[in-house]
Structure formats: structure tokens, C-alpha cells
Amino acid sequence: MAEAGLYISPLEDYSAFLGFNRDRKKTPFTIIGIPLDISSSYRSGCSLAPQSIRNTSRSIELCSFVNNINLEDIGFEDLGNIIMAPGDIITSLKRIEIVIESLLNEGRRIFILGGEHTLTYGSFKAFAKIFKNPCLLVFDAHLDLRDEYLGTKFNHATVIRRIIDDTNVLKVIFIGSRAISMEESSYALEKNDKVSIYRFWGSRIPIDIIDRVREDISRCDAIYISIDMDVIDPAYAPGVQTPEPLGIDPQNLLQILSRLIDTRTWVTDIVEITPVYDHSETTSFLASRIIIEIASILIESLNIEKSYCKI
Amino acid sequence: MAEAGLYISPLEDYSAFLGFNRDRKKTPFTIIGIPLDISSSYRSGCSLAPQSIRNTSRSIELCSFVNNINLEDIGFEDLGNIIMAPGDIITSLKRIEIVIESLLNEGRRIFILGGEHTLTYGSFKAFAKIFKNPCLLVFDAHLDLRDEYLGTKFNHATVIRRIIDDTNVLKVIFIGSRAISMEESSYALEKNDKVSIYRFWGSRIPIDIIDRVREDISRCDAIYISIDMDVIDPAYAPGVQTPEPLGIDPQNLLQILSRLIDTRTWVTDIVEITPVYDHSETTSFLASRIIIEIASILIESLNIEKSYCKI
Amino acid sequence: MAEAGLYISPLEDYSAFLGFNRDRKKTPFTIIGIPLDISSSYRSGCSLAPQSIRNTSRSIELCSFVNNINLEDIGFEDLGNIIMAPGDIITSLKRIEIVIESLLNEGRRIFILGGEHTLTYGSFKAFAKIFKNPCLLVFDAHLDLRDEYLGTKFNHATVIRRIIDDTNVLKVIFIGSRAISMEESSYALEKNDKVSIYRFWGSRIPIDIIDRVREDISRCDAIYISIDMDVIDPAYAPGVQTPEPLGIDPQNLLQILSRLIDTRTWVTDIVEITPVYDHSETTSFLASRIIIEIASILIESLNIEKSYCKI
Amino acid sequence: MAEAGLYISPLEDYSAFLGFNRDRKKTPFTIIGIPLDISSSYRSGCSLAPQSIRNTSRSIELCSFVNNINLEDIGFEDLGNIIMAPGDIITSLKRIEIVIESLLNEGRRIFILGGEHTLTYGSFKAFAKIFKNPCLLVFDAHLDLRDEYLGTKFNHATVIRRIIDDTNVLKVIFIGSRAISMEESSYALEKNDKVSIYRFWGSRIPIDIIDRVREDISRCDAIYISIDMDVIDPAYAPGVQTPEPLGIDPQNLLQILSRLIDTRTWVTDIVEITPVYDHSETTSFLASRIIIEIASILIESLNIEKSYCKI
Amino acid sequence: MAEAGLYISPLEDYSAFLGFNRDRKKTPFTIIGIPLDISSSYRSGCSLAPQSIRNTSRSIELCSFVNNINLEDIGFEDLGNIIMAPGDIITSLKRIEIVIESLLNEGRRIFILGGEHTLTYGSFKAFAKIFKNPCLLVFDAHLDLRDEYLGTKFNHATVIRRIIDDTNVLKVIFIGSRAISMEESSYALEKNDKVSIYRFWGSRIPIDIIDRVREDISRCDAIYISIDMDVIDPAYAPGVQTPEPLGIDPQNLLQILSRLIDTRTWVTDIVEITPVYDHSETTSFLASRIIIEIASILIESLNIEKSYCKI
Amino acid sequence: MAEAGLYISPLEDYSAFLGFNRDRKKTPFTIIGIPLDISSSYRSGCSLAPQSIRNTSRSIELCSFVNNINLEDIGFEDLGNIIMAPGDIITSLKRIEIVIESLLNEGRRIFILGGEHTLTYGSFKAFAKIFKNPCLLVFDAHLDLRDEYLGTKFNHATVIRRIIDDTNVLKVIFIGSRAISMEESSYALEKNDKVSIYRFWGSRIPIDIIDRVREDISRCDAIYISIDMDVIDPAYAPGVQTPEPLGIDPQNLLQILSRLIDTRTWVTDIVEITPVYDHSETTSFLASRIIIEIASILIESLNIEKSYCKI
Ligand SMILES: [Mn+2]
Ligand SMILES: [Mn+2]
Ligand SMILES: [Mn+2]
Ligand SMILES: [Mn+2]
Ligand SMILES: [Mn+2]
Ligand SMILES: [Mn+2]
Ligand SMILES: [Mn+2]
Ligand SMILES: [Mn+2]
Ligand SMILES: [Mn+2]
Ligand SMILES: [Mn+2]
Ligand SMILES: [Mn+2]
Ligand SMILES: [Mn+2]
Q: Binding of Mn(2+): at which residues (chains A, B, C, D, E, F) (predicted)?
């Protein structure tokens, strides 16, 4: 990993996800933390999320909910965190890009523990370099499609727009977005060949959107899933930068994910968790569970050898 | 506003709702904070709610959920807070009455940021002076129909009874009440010409109650909506004086509101939020969203010129 | 109560459940707190739960949700707490057994305010001595069926296995379990004559499991219900030792309980509440409500004289 | 206690101070809680303080710091709390007056667990009726000498002025006051025959003020000590309504108290503790300790039979 | 203020310091908030500090501690906050520089409400442009003299070194620094013509350092005071990014300030307060008090017309 | 370490103290965490302390306060935590004994990160096996000399008595104890050949006790220092099980330690930190600093090669 290695803080400084660190040869999955926390406008604190997610993950049982696979057999390689450049978002995003590119070149299926949503710019840039017809599936209460926010171009309110501007992304699909501004709504309309928005409010997104989303992503060669935890209702995910009421519930999210994820899914990021507002750590516990479930769906899709918990 | 003006703390001491203060000529809506916090028996702290609701409102996007209206065009006049008389509920209620009466005389559609539920006495008294056949729609886990509580007549446990006693209210309709006492149940039965109770527990009130409520309010000339946030399940609204389990979810509340609100709705109060128990401010975020949605429904009903966010 | 009395801390040190202490002759129900908090592996703090549940219970209205019974007529005898032996789980469990046996001998219907789940071992042992064909209905996100955990045999992760090993329990039925390990899944399979698991994730368990559970318990002479609050989704019950996402909602839990409880139900315990993580006390409020509702269902089943709140 | 008894909530609803309730014949000391919380302007929540002080007191060891007396022999009678009239400060103050007068008539040495500072009005009124030449020693960061505050006469900012206006208090002495307004400073100057102010900021008040204070109180027949916990630095007492920096430390407070208290001291109140802001309960722990130490000083002064812890 | 004005968020969005906004002609003092929060490595959240300081300031009494001046006569102009560029520290620092330069050109005495310590770079750059022989007095537990930190040049750990590198600062004096690294200690030694360090740990810095500091600053034409709140012991100032034990107490800080401040003092910044860790807001209360006291010392030095609180 | 190794959780699960793990050959110091949390009677939660202390230690600068030694050169070996047996204090204490004995046999200077105070029994037993004339220096607000507590023999209230009973300890010296019971005071008096108590309350213990303590320990061949963090005033160390007011300040503690520690000091434990009550982590920060300072004093005493930070 040459240069990439320079930007990763040594593993022994962090407890591994789930409490063990599986050798790369035995698992397709790599965990990498990205404690970016640099452009928040309201609250801040999501740099502490990778540690918090890992911490809660060690109390999680390893039989998956969606398909009863025993994750213990397969597990995750956990590389630790990418070292952020304090106060310098451009450098930080560049480091993210280098590390993710290196991991994708090595054929890893990646789970990113954010960090603020802006990190998706760096990682998607790497993703778009590696794969043809790259697509981005965004679960977010917001669209993050502003052109500029408080005078800067790279931040959590503009990140998806920057990706559309700067990469060859084929399709950006938003699921569960509900809090939008006029500026974003106009821009999305204008870009409606590239951007699909499944706007919903309330606890359940009708499952019949699945077919339309599948159609949207039918020409994608590779899919990047970005989960801004504020897509979920604050009852279930209170510990985020901007809690937006009337979100989906986690059951609905898992149902949708289990029908959309297939072998084209290479990167998943989970962003915007803010532990200092996450009383009783319920948001981090939920993030840990979501990662396990996505991994289980991928194991099924990838047809990896596995065992089941029988109940 | 002559005398009323004396009781309002100067606007520049408070950040306006949504972060901007629209001129009265351009919007029918007036925000007024009422930090009453004087008669609580269990916890206290709801005097800090107006500030907390305004604070969270500044992170809210302005396209409404229920009908996609762009609120930025219309906005709200925010007058700041009514100054409470410390330890003197009678004087405080009188000031509330004077200010609300003055605003209604000026034809404003009012949103009150409470404060404890007792404030509804003062504002409804003004309301009942201005309008013929005034009605009160109460969303509350409780009935607040006790005759006396710990030896006093004016407090959060007696407020609706006092309104029935002291005003010419035509109809009081409770929606979502679930935690009641024998005393209240007996009283309500006795007054069943005037009082309707739609008691429910659990997340969803069947929408078919709407027709019955519509019938109940058919003879009302003007409607006052009082939302005690404890009507909502504590999962979604933990920051209240008395969290009562098994409440409705916010989606259900918005659905009901969107079918009941019409041009007869003049005042809405949102009461009992207690910020010090509102971890991650989710209750205040929800209150901000509810206000925006009610305003949007009113804009539609009142046929005000507007623009839409198109998604 | 002879020896049993020695282990109970004098009543006047604790506020009674609901704020009043009904004489034993007027109510079949006895409340007993068990502040066991000795074997936690992740967090701790559930020794403070009995006090917290009692505290919140005093703000609860006394008309039941499920059947509108006025609980004030009947009420609860509240004996206070069993004194735990610090650092000595064996002695603590023995004291629990002695007290519960004594109460059952006196024909009391018991509600236990936990305390960690391990206490169920002591109380079920007593239960299994008194009743023939005793059964255990467990509501828990977990199975607690490990043989050993961190080198010990008696703790919250092994408690149900120990009960199966050490008592003549006829049937153990798990409802709502979702987070399991391979070890537990294998053991349960092996013991499938004795153990039934209704595994579910998500907010609603289909009510049609009721018939199957009824069949499972058809040969039981007496039923012990153990409610580990983590069976409920952390949105509704954040204040527990190990919040496990994707749990059932409280409405669903009450619906299931109201169809399963009958005169064979003698003991109910509510365990694992951890007040220091229970922001706004919503978990304790919910526990108080669950106890009132179970008591109301029992009043109906036992055909005790009662009055109704009429609404 | 006739009428007084009507206003006291039954004892069994509260855990006694120190965890035991000594018979009146064996101890001169009576504890009474006054959960007044009605006129706060900034924060609120001090109605929960009596419960919090009692709760922490049960973890306190019973050998006094100042003179090594074993408090266990003597202990306290704990009557529980006076029931406040929600939202009605005049009625609440009247109840306080009636109860305190009754207790003083019975010759009790009283410790009041507040509640907001305004309660001192009610209790001092009783005190001034019973004793000739009554004096008031106030430990407070503030003077509470405003004539009116936000339009009312009875609140935490005016309480001492009201006492000077409405009672025959001989002398009011402030110790440790530091945060004053021009209005108060002018008023105090005007009343300098009656009012002495020992203004200080910083951790230690020089002990040589003692002689001057002694001179000030030389003609007093009975002394009432009112301790607003904000006199102490917020490092030691964070859980108060208005934390004022640069306060005295608790060691200094105890030193001063131990030199000023004598047999003329009949009532001590400890006010303004706000548990929801009292993280780790350190302010309540400190209040418990202060009460024990004052009692020990009184035991010495009153020459009561006692035993000592010998170390 | 031309360009500077562009970067200031409109005043009506913020409550003014002390609750009133004095006209510029009547006061030499200008308050400006700088919510910079971009380069934190451990915790974050200091963007919320300006709002928190203003909020607590409204409960502060206006007679100063150090010299009894009535601040109400003079007060402060409060311009609101400088708008930070999310994720872009260079642009943010430039805006700070422009605004501070503009204010100094207008002859204002400035109080900056931080924000992270890095902001001092922007404001000192402006300061060093305006004044000859500019000096910097730093109160900080740390030296912030690293050359680079996690790969970037501008952050809270390097800010003072950057100032030494990039400006014509005549002298940098550290008071109360205690937590230093070898790298910083070596650098400071090397620069000992320019840098003086008064390293201390424990609650009181001996006042006799004053003469040495006075000597150090004797050739300075203008003095900038930067107060990193972590210089104070965490008992008094818990709400900071990096609480460092064994700090000075606030009394000592005020004593030192009152002997060092004279008419050469033009800018004071108060940085690193992190409200989400500032339980009971004690750190913000202390910051408000420090500002009032520094203003009072300046009023005395500047010989401005004033009145005194007489006690 | 044979058997000892079995009880230690693998290092890579924990971030090392100070963020790096020095090879045993280069440092005499070994860190070992003991998350015992089993016998608490009031609060619980100190099992999370080892992680919290390590976490804060990574933000600490490495030049010592007391003697300016650069700790980076020497550092610490950090072995991780001893695995506790849930609910089984006897087994847990045995594991502690085995591990500590093994480390002492290997000549390590040990720092224990507790855990509740009871752990000192296990580690001192090992200590007393290895060394002749072993002595115990206890810094604690309490004496922990009860014979039994709530019916058990091994808990935080009896631990020092058990050590006196069960080991050949030569001398037990208490420093800073202030909260004692009659039972303890009598016992201590009886054992006054073996037990010395330097009882104090208030912020500073006069340094002249040093000579008397030195005399007390003159015949000791090896010294074990046990620091119950509640010895320190709760202003500085709020995050403990039982905050006891009127404690010493950290400056005083370091002064005393720096005069008492010499080459006979082999083990130091720091116990009773309870992170969930440790707002802003100030207690853990302080513990980290205390460890660094004790190590620095030992480096000086042991005459190890070292470098100094020069300021
Ligand atoms: Mn986003
Ligand atoms: Mn978002
Ligand atoms: Mn209500
Ligand atoms: Mn209500
Ligand atoms: Mn369980
Ligand atoms: Mn469980
Ligand atoms: Mn006061
Ligand atoms: Mn005060
Ligand atoms: Mn700094
Ligand atoms: Mn610093
Ligand atoms: Mn101890
Ligand atoms: Mn202790």
C-alpha cells in the first residue's frame, strides 16, 4: 500500500471492529475509519465516531438478522483510521482518495466508518477512477447538493454536488431524502438524467420503489453506498449532526438494502454519527448492526463459503 | 400593540425562528415565545424551550414535507418572548391574554412556543373573546381536567378544566390522550356535550377518526390547536415534563393535522418541551418541523401566493 | 416471612411504587426490588433501577391502557428491596430465592423490579420449587444461553442456561430474541423439546405467533414472565445494559402480553434497566406502564372486583 | 401540628435524610424539605433538590469533620416535604410559614432542604414571629435585594428585600456576596444600619471578618442562617440555578460557620441546588456534609450528650 | 467596514453579550464572536462557544469584582459572529484578519469570543499590521509551538509558532503553561530572545512574576492577550477541548490580569471553550466574568468616565 | 507469565497508555488494567475506567511537571487488562493476585488502572508474598475498614481490613482520609501499632506530616501505594463512586507523593474512577497525569538514564 500506508494510524492504537482482526486472506471485507470533522456548521464531534462504532460492535452477537449467517467465520480486516490533516480539508480528502484507491486496487470490499459526509468526495473519487460506470446510492435526509455553503465548496452541504461536478458518476440515487432546499430541488430537476430522488418522510418507504431503483442502477458497473445516518428517524439515531424528524426506521432501511445490494457493491460508508450527542450509544450500536447485515447480504451475493446459525 | 408591547422582550435579544424575521406585511404568521415554567410538579425547565426551538429551527430546510411548499418565500414574523412574572401565574396568564388578544385583533395567525401547558389558559381566553363559537383541539397524552392539583386551581393538570369553566368554549376535542385519572374520566363523561375524547395508545391513530372530529368541529367558527408534545411517543419526543409511553408517532400526527386544519385555525401552541431532558435536541427539531408543516397546510388553505419545491 | 424478612431493606427507605403502599389484604400484587448489579461485562448501573422505576411511577395515571381498569382501587403492596451481597452473586441469588419462595408461599402475585437479568435464576428457582410444571416466558433481545462467560457460570449471559440445567423447568419460550451467537443457537437446537425460540427483528411480531406460544405453554401449571427491557427497540428503551437495534415496539409487547397472560402467571420480572443511560427516564416510565398493564390484565383474568375509567 | 400537618407530604414517600428517621425525643434536629421552584428566571429544577440531598446523604459517613462527633447517636427527625401549591407563590409561602412556625413552637432546631431561595421569606416570617430580635445571616453570591424583578415582588431576586420590608428583622448580614447590581448596592447603602455586607470574591474569606460579624449579631436573640449554595465556587457546587464564578471554597465556609454558630441558631436553610445540572451529584453531597457539620457544631454548643469518633 | 461587513453574520441573529447592545459612540469595547472549529484533534465543538458565552452573560451582575465599576453605564457593542468558511482554515483566518484589522482601524478595543485557538493567527496578523512592536501575552496550559501537527501547519497545536514565523511580533510571553513537549521546549529555548515562558503548575502563580513580565513587555507598543481557557484548572473550566489538570485558579488569573493590563491592551481573545462538555455552563459563566473584569480594568486604565457600585 | 497470561485480554484490543507501547527492556514500568466492578453499593461503572484513562492519556504532553523529565524516552509497557470473572469476586481477586505476582517476579514497577478499590486485596496479596516487610500507603477519603458490608466480606468498604487480616502487612498508613464511621474509628484505634491515619479535610494537607509518615514507613522494605481518587476533592475528581466533599487538591497530592516515593515503591494502583459520572473526563485526565508524575519521581529515584525538557 506504499503511500497509502503513510496515512493510516497504526492498528494497535484501536480496538478492531467486533473485537477481532481477521486476516485479509480469510475475508473480503476491510474496515477503515475516517475521522473527518472539519466543515460542520451546526454541531461537531463526528471524529469520535469510528472509535465509538468499534466500541459498541464488541457487544454485538454475530449471527446476522437478515439471513442468519454466522459472521464469526468470516469477520473483517480492520486497518484502523486514516489520519486527517487538521483544518485542511483538501489534503484530508486527498489522503482518503489515496487510501481507498489503494484498497480497491487490492480488491477489497470496503466499509468506511465516518466522519462527516464530506469524506464521500475523497472515497468516491477513488471509486470512480477504478470502476467504469460508477454509481452512488445515497441514503440521507438531505441532498447535500448546494453549490456553496458559507463561502466554501467542500463541505457536508455540497459534497454530492461536488461529486457530480468532478467525477464521471453515472447515476446518483437518493433514497429517503426529505429535508431539501429550493436551490437543491432546482438543481436536481435540471440534472434529472443523472440524479434520481426518492423523497419520503415517515417511517416506511414503500418497498415498491425497489423496482424503480433497480432500473436506475441497471447500467451501473459498480455501486457505492453512502449512508448518512440522519436518513433514519432521530428516535433510532439521535447521535447525528443534524437530527431531521420524520425519518425511516431501521427495519425499513435493512429491507431496502437487502434487496438492492449485489456483487456490484464495493464501498459502503456510514457517516455523520456524533457520539457526544449519542446518549446510550444507540446510534453507534445501530451502525454496527447495519455493517454486519450488509456484510451478510454481500456474503450471500458473493457466494462465499459460510455457516448459518440455525434458529 | 400599546400595552401588549410592554410585556414582550425586545426582539434583538432572540434569534428569530428559522434565522430570519419576515416583515408582517409579507406573512400572515407570527411567532411568539411564552417561557412559562411555574407550576410544574415533577420536573421543570420548559422556560428554555422557546430558545431551543428557535435554535434548532435554523438548521431546518424550508421545503415542507406535507405539500412541498417553499416556506422561504413567506416566512414568519418573530416577536420574541412574552416576559413572565416570576412566581405569579395569574399575572403571567394576564400578560399572555393581553398579548394574544392584541395579535388576534391585528389579524395574525399565531404560533406559540411554550412554556408549560398552563399558558393555554391565557391565550385561549383571548381567543374566546375575539371569536364566536371558539373551539379547542388538544393533542395531549393527558386530559389536564383535574379540578385542583396540590391545592391550586391554575396549573398544567387543571388547565383545560379551567378553560371549560371560565370561557365560552364551544367544543373541546382531545386527540391521542391516553393517561387519564378516574376523576378526569368522570368529569369528561359528565361534560360529554362539550368534551370529546379520542383516546388512543400506540403509534397510529386510525385516520377514520377524522370524520368524527370534523363533525365535532362543524359548528366552530374558529379553532385553537394546542399540542402538548407528550402526545407523541417519548422515542420521538423525549424532552418533555412527563414522558408517557405508548404515544403516537410524528407521521401520524402530521397526517391528522393535515386533514383537520383549515382557515378557521388561528392559534397553535406547542407546549411542555423541556430542553434539559431533550438530549440531542430531537424534541425541539420535531417542534420546528411541526410548525413549518402546519404553516404549509395553512398556506394551502388560505390560498396564499407561493412557490413549490419540485421533487 | 421469617428469614426472608432479614434480607429486605426496610420499606420506609423507599418511596412505594405509584406513591402509595396498599395493604396486602386488599391487593394480590407485591412489588419487590432486586438491585442486583454484579456481573455486567459492558456497562453497569442497573442497581439504581428499582428506585428509578418507583420514582417515575409516581407520575403515571392509574387507568390502564389495555382494559381501562382503575388501578387505584387495587394498587400494590411494595416491600422495598432485597439487600444484595456486594460482590457475592451466589449469596445474592440465595437471598432472592428465599424471599421469592416466601412470597409465593403466601400466595402473592409478584412483580420484580431488577436489577440485572441474572436475578431470574434465584427467583425462578423458588418458583420451580413451589409450582409443578413451571414454565418461563422470556422477552429478551438475547438468549442468555451461554454455558460460561469470561470464566464464570452465573451471569447475565448464562442465566437462562443455568435455569435449564438446575431446575425442573418444563418449557422455556423466548419471544423477540434477535441477537444470538452460534453457541446459543446450537444449544437451543439441541434442547428443542424444552426450548422454543420466536426470533424476530423489527418493530412488530406478528400476532399469529400467539397460537403457537399458547400451544407451547398448554401443559404449564404456572408461568414466570421475564422481561429483559432490551427486547424493546432502543428508541423506546435506551436505558439498558446492551442496546440492541431492531427491537419490537412497546405497543406490540403489550398486545402480545395481553393475549398470553392468564391466571397461571405468578411472577413477572423487569430487568436490565440502567438509569444512568436512561436519559429523560423514558425506559423507567415505560417499565412502570408495563407493570400497570400486566396487573390490569391479571385483574381481568383473576376476576377481581374492580371499577373502570369510562372513556 | 394541626394545620401544619396538612401541608406535609407523608413521610413514607421519601427516604429519610441519612437513611434513618430518629424519634423526635432523641434529637433536637428536624429536617423538612421545601421543593419550591416557581420563580426562576434562568434555569429551573430545584424542586428535585430535597430528594437528591437525601439520596446522597445515605452514602455519607457519620463522624463529623469539624469536631469528630458521631452523628449516628443523635440523628435527625425527617418530616418529609412541604407540599407546594403549583404556580401560586403566595399560598406556597404561607404554607411554609405555617409549618415552620409550628415546628419552632415545638422547640425544634430546623434544617430546610430547598427549593429556591424565595422560600426563606416564608420561613423567616415564622421565625420573626417567634423570636425577639431575629437576625438573618445570608451566604449568597448575590444580594437578592431588588425591589421587583420582571414585574413581581416575590422571587429569588427580591427575597431578602421583602424580608427587610415585611418583618422586624434586626440585622441582615451577607457573607461572601460578590455579584451585585447598582440598584442593590444603593439600597444596601441606604439601609446600612440594618444591612451589613461582607463582599468577597475568591476562594477564602479572611477569618478576621468573624469578629466584625460577631459584633453585628451581638444584639440578636435568635439567628437564621440561609445558605444559597451559589456562594460556593461552581467548581465545588456546579448544580445551582446561577453559577457565579470566583466563590469561596467549602473549607472556608465550614470554618466560618464553625465560628459563628451558637445556641441562638434555630433555622438553617440550604437553597438553590438544581440536581439536573449537578453532574455526579457533588453539590448534593456537599449540602449533606454541610448539614452534618452544622448539626455537630450545634451539638457542641448545646452541650448535648454525645460520643466521639477517635482518630 | 466595507469588506469586513460581508463576513459578519447579522446581529439580530444573536443575543448580545450581557443582553444589550451599546452604541459604539458610548463604549470603546467591541465584542465579536469567531466560531472557528476546524482543526481539533481530540474533541470538537467550540463553534458553539460564542452563543454559550453570550447566553450565560445575561445572568451576570454588572458591578465588577476587581474595582467595583458599574459596567451598565458603558457596556459593549456586540457585532455578532464572523462567518467561518467550513473546512477551509486559510479562508477563515483571512476573514478574521480582515474583520479585526477593520475594527482596529476604527480604534475599537476588541474582545473575541472563540472558537479554537487557531483563530489567534488571523487576529494577531491584523494586530501586527496595525501596531508597531506588537506583543502577545498567552495564557495557556500548552505552548502551541509545534511546527506541524498531523501533517498541517495551521492548527491549535502550531498556532503560536506560526505567529512567530509569520509576523513581526516583538515578544511572546506564556503564563501558566504546564503541558509541554520536548519539541516545543527545544524550540522555545532556541527563540529565547523572543519567547518567555512562565511555566507553572498548581493553583497559584506567585504574584512576583509580575515584575519580570512587566520587564518583558516594557518595549511593547501594543499588547494582545490570548486566553486559552485550559490555562485554568479543569475544576473551574471543565468545558474545554483538552482539560489539563493542575491549572491556576480564576482568582489568581484575575489578580495577574489586573496587574498586567494597561492602555496598551487592544485585543483579548478567549478561546477553546467547548459547551457540549461544559456541564452547568460554568466555563462560559467564568468567561463572561473574565471579560467584564478585563473591561473594568481597562476602564480604569483609560480613565473613562464611570460610576461605582458602593459596597 | 504462563498462567498469568491466560487472564490478560490481548493487547491489541486496547489502545496503549499514552498511545504507544514501549518494549519491556526499555522501561521498568508496566501498566495493567483491572476493570473490577462487582461490589459497588451506591453507583457502579468503574469497569470502564481503564479504557477512559488510556483514552485521555493520549492527549497528555510528556514532560513531567514535578521534575521536567521527558517521559517519551522511557514510556510504559501496557499489557492490557486482566479479565474479570463476572459476578465472582473471589475468582477475580485470585486472577489479580496471579498476574501481579508474576509481574513482580519479573521485576516490573507496576501501575494498576482500576477498577473498584476491592482489587487492592488481590494485588496486595501478591505484593506481600514477594516482599518482606510490605507496607501499604492508602490515599482515600474513606478507611474501607469495615468488617462486613451488607453481609459480605470482600468489597470496597472492607478491603483494607481484609488486607490487615489476611496478609503480613507491616504498616498501613492512611493519608487524607476524612469520612469515617465509628466502627472503623474503633478498629483503627485498636490496631494502632499497625495502622496510622492522617485524617484531614480541606484542600491542603500540611507538608509537615511527611516526616511522620517517613518515620512510619522507615522499617518497610517495599511500599504499595493505593490511590482511591475520592481522596481528591470532587471539584477535581467528580467521576468517582462516592464523591466526598472537602478533599485535598491535586497539587497537594503531587507534593506529598514527590516526597514519599522512593525506590521501595513497586506498585501503584489508581481506583474508583467511574467514567459515566466523569463529565468532560477530567478525573481520567488527572489520573493520567498522576501516573506520569509518579513515574517521573521513580525515574529520578531509580537513577535511570533520561533527558529533560528545558524550560
Ligand atoms: Mn449528508
Ligand atoms: Mn444528512
Ligand atoms: Mn398537557
Ligand atoms: Mn401532557
Ligand atoms: Mn437478558
Ligand atoms: Mn438482553
Ligand atoms: Mn439567593
Ligand atoms: Mn444566589
Ligand atoms: Mn492553546
Ligand atoms: Mn491549551
Ligand atoms: Mn476506597
Ligand atoms: Mn473512597
A: 117, 140, 142, 144, 228, 230
The DSSP bridge partners found for residue E265 are: E223
Count the neighbouring beta carbons within 10 Å of the beta carbon of residue E152. 18
For residue F5, pLDDT beyond 80 = no
Q: How far apart are CA A53 and CA F78, in angstroms?
A: 23
pLDDT tens digits, one per residue of E248-277: 999 999 999 999 999 999 999 999 999 999
User: In sequence order, what are the beta bridge partners of F248?
Assistant: F232
Q: Is residue A311 part of a domain?
A: no
With cell 469520535, the residue in question is A48
Q: Do C12 and D16 touch (CB under 8 A)?
A: yes
Task: List all chains that touch chain F, counting a touch as 3 or more CB pairs closer than 8 Å.
Answer: A, C, D, E
- What number is the ipTM of this complex? 0.94
Q: Which residues pair with D136 in a beta bridge?
A: D172, D224
Instruction: Name which of F199, F203, F245 is nearest D311 (Cβ-Cβ).
Output: F199
**Radius of gyration from C-alpha coordinates of chain F:** 18
Q: How many contacts, defined by CB atoms under 8 Å, are there between A and C?
A: 74
User: How many structural domains are present in chain D?
Assistant: 1
Q: E51: which 3 cell numbers?
A: 452563543
pLDDT of residue E150: 83
- For D293, the domain range is 2-302
d(CA E196, CA A241): 41
DSSP 3-state of B28? coil
pLDDT per residue of chain E (311 residues) written in tens, 0 to 9: 567 777 777 555 447 899 888 999 999 999 999 999 988 767 889 999 999 999 999 999 999 999 999 999 999 999 999 999 988 999 999 999 999 999 999 999 999 999 999 999 999 999 999 999 999 999 999 999 999 988 889 999 999 999 999 999 999 999 999 999 999 999 999 999 999 999 999 999 998 899 999 999 999 999 999 999 999 999 999 999 999 999 999 999 999 999 999 999 999 999 999 999 999 999 999 999 999 999 999 999 999 999 999 87
Give a yes or no: residue A141 inside a domain.
Answer: yes
Using a CB-CB distance cutoff of 8 angstroms, which residues of chain F are in contact with residue E277?
279-280
Surface-to-core class of residue C31, CB atoms within 10 Å of its CB (0-12 exposed, 13-18 middle, 19+ buried): buried
Q: How many whole angstroms from its chain centre is CA D221?
A: 18
User: B232: which DSSP letter?
Assistant: B
Supply the CATH number for residue B89's domain. 3.40.800.10
Q: What nine digits make up the cell of E53?
A: 458565552
Q: How far apart are CA C120 and CA C117, in angstroms?
A: 6
pLDDT digits (tens, 9 = 90+) for B263-306: 999 999 999 999 999 999 999 999 999 999 999 999 999 999 99
Task: Give the C-alpha separation, B291 to F131, whole Å.
Answer: 73
pLDDT computed for residue F72 by the predictor? 92
Burial F130-168 (b: 16+ CB within 10 A, else e): ebebbbbbbbbbbbbbbeebbbbbbbbbbbbbbbbeebe
**Residue C147 among known ligand-binding residues:** no
Taking CA–CA distances from C15, the nearest residue in chain D reads: D13
Is C310 part of a structural domain of the chain? no
Interface partners of C (3+ CB pairs, < 8 Å)?
A, B, D, F
Q: Is the pLDDT of residue D19 over 50?
A: yes
Under 8 Å between Cβ of F230 and F247 = yes
